[in-house]
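User: Some background: our group keeps a shared notebook of sequences we're curious about, and every so often someone picks one and asks for a predicted structure to add to the entry. Today it's my turn. The entry only has the sequence so far, pasted here. Could you supply the structure so I can complete it?
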Amino acid sequence: MKLAHFAGELGVRPTNRKPMTYDLDIIKELCGELGLRTVPRPDDRVAVELEHGVVLIFVNADKEDDAFIGFEDVGWHFHGSLACSDRHGFWKEVGYLDILIGLADGTILTCEAWSHGVMKMRSLVHRDFVDEFRFLKEEDEVRIRRPRLRRGAD
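Assistant: Of course. Here's the predicted structure to add to the notebook entry:
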């Protein structure tokens, strides 16, 4: 089954009527199709290694109505869809399966904020909807990267 082709239809958007959870099996399958590497974690989450030491996690929390996406080593996370905006105030929501597709095609990138040689934050940004630069101070640095995809079978 080629999930990448149907992700827009499969992407679950949060609503007030239904609890938000991620389909972890579909996430794993889609990662395999896209060349994104998953690494073992507890059953309530899927961990996607974007590069050595940079692991994005999709978590269905203990409470049935709570799910989030974030990085293992930093506090940044979000619930539901990723909301991205540009400097003109235009914005876009990206569903959890579309985030994976975006990581694979370069539309979704990792963004790190560094200050005085220390990483202060890591987040996801949309290539065309990013407004992080307006907050830069003189001593700050922003590092934006695209994950490396695995080629062939592991």
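Suggested note for the entry: The chain has one domain: 3-145. The beta strands are 37-39, 45-51, 54-60, 67-71, 77-78, 82-85, 91-94, 108-115, 118-126, 140-145.
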